[in-house]
Amino acid sequence: MSAYQNDIKAVAALKESAGNSWSAINPESVARMRAQNRFKTGLDIAKYTAAIMRKDMAEYDADSSVYTQSLGCWHGFIGQQKLISIKKHLKTTNKRYLYLSGWMVAALRSDFGPLPDQSMHEKTAVSGLIEELYTFLRQADARELDLLFMDLDAARDAGDKSKQDEVQAKIDNFETHVVPIIADIDAGFGNPEATYLLAKKMIEAGACCIQIENQVSDEKQCGHQDGKVTVPHEDFLAKINAVRYAFLELGVDDGVIVARTDSLGAGLTKQIAVTKEPGDLGDQYNSFLDCEEVSAADMKNGDVVLNRDGKLLRPKRLPSNLFQFRAGTGEDRVILDCITSLQNGADLLWIETEKPHVGQIAAMVNRIREVIPTAKLVYNNSPSFNWTLNFRQQVFDTMTAEGKDMSAYDRAKLMSVDYDETELAQIADEKIRTFQADGSREAGIFHHLITLPTYHTAALSTDNLAKGYFAEQGMLAYVKGVQRQELRQGIACVKHQNMAGSDIGDNHKEYFAGEAALKAGGKDNTMNQFG
Fold first, then answer.
1. How many other C-beta atoms can be found within 10 angstroms of the C-beta atom of residue 390?
2. DSSP reduced 3-state for 69
3. Burial of 54: CB neighbours in 10 Å, binned 0-12, 13-18, 19+
4. pLDDT, tens only, 414-453
5. Structural domain of residue 125, as residue ranges?
6. Catalytic annotation, residues
7. Mapping DSSP to helix (H, G, I), strand (E, B) and coil, where does residue 458 land?
8. What is the pLDDT of residues 484-499, one digit of tens each?
9. 184 is in an annotated binding site
10. What sign results for the dihedral spanned by CA atoms 470, 473, 475, 480?
């Protein structure tokens, strides 16, 4: 017997024990409301989705073709529409997540207005967006189930037993819109205690997976900007521990931690690591510093020096009071970061790169897997990359190495529309199309995300509407470019009253007041124009 039928029986028994005072309560209506409210708290969601991620990670370890994906969403409605679309077109949410981007929280969700990705926004805006996303996903569940309940009632009224059984099976086997969120906590927004407190808020809101990076909190930069400053490993590991303690305190024992390293593009550190003996973790971190050997006589007032192997080394110190790493050490620092993070509580890695290149990513992951064979990545398929130019240049270089005549191409100008129909462009587009599958097979990428896609799609669609509506097209710009497309593509929110919950509200009114209910969805509701 299904959970739905069990709830009907259980409530019927309760009603009977309560006597006549519950005579107006319909057990099936209660069962419907329970089905529409499967997840009572954010912790329920975090526990449910953590189990999904752990299962998906194990399946990826067995078969790298079953990678996972997500899109970054900056509003609950955007996340909701994404999952509704996935269910409509792909029939299942399996292996599809949501990503919560700190960049978009800063740019779109701060009371200060648009901010750069430098951890200046209110930290609770992050947990607030997680809660909002799950509120909208739960509402998507309620709406879809409500439509099924109405179909069930219609089939009963028509005496169509076959249709009743078909709809009841859909209710009993309903797949929720609630999926895992990988949530960005930036560099932890302060010291480890601050990281722990915010992680708790995020988990309580529903996050089963928290991504944290090894930059300095008060110097944090977007991963695709200059001026990034990393912290010694001991500092970063303390924050990983803080997140793990938050998960364990709240009972999400299989919560997932993504350790992000920005070392590939970060040439600076704010502090010299503490070291107790040669070769320890602090000494390894310090070994990458750009130093010059000095004698005691060479030292100036205020100099900082290191003692290594009996030599005095003066790290290069900038006017900003930051210390500089040696050029060319980025990849080695990434490898040490990743191995150390996995050995100290992280579950997944994020290597921030400057371009989308499977070979570059694979080279680093292969080195990590020499120590930790199950190492796997969350990878940022970033809109900060010029994907077209990058892949056309990769193909250009490959074709050149193969000895092909490339005189018809200018490598620096391959973005030009003039090349769109060429063999080179077609090969590049195919490599872009297969990038995720290739990266998961060859470079250990378990999860592919795009951080800012819905930021860009909102801007593009708004531009297309505005340029027509406020010019000669007028209302046709909306009707032809939006509403007509919604109708023809079956976009659910063309019935925006239904999407906002009007039918759910009408059905609740009927539960509560019976025939006396004043409902909004009658014959004069203009939503009926959309069938």
1. 19
2. strand
3. middle
4. 999 999 999 999 999 999 999 999 999 999 999 999 999 9
5. 42-289+325-451
6. 222
7. helix
8. 998 999 888 888 888 8
9. yes
10. negative
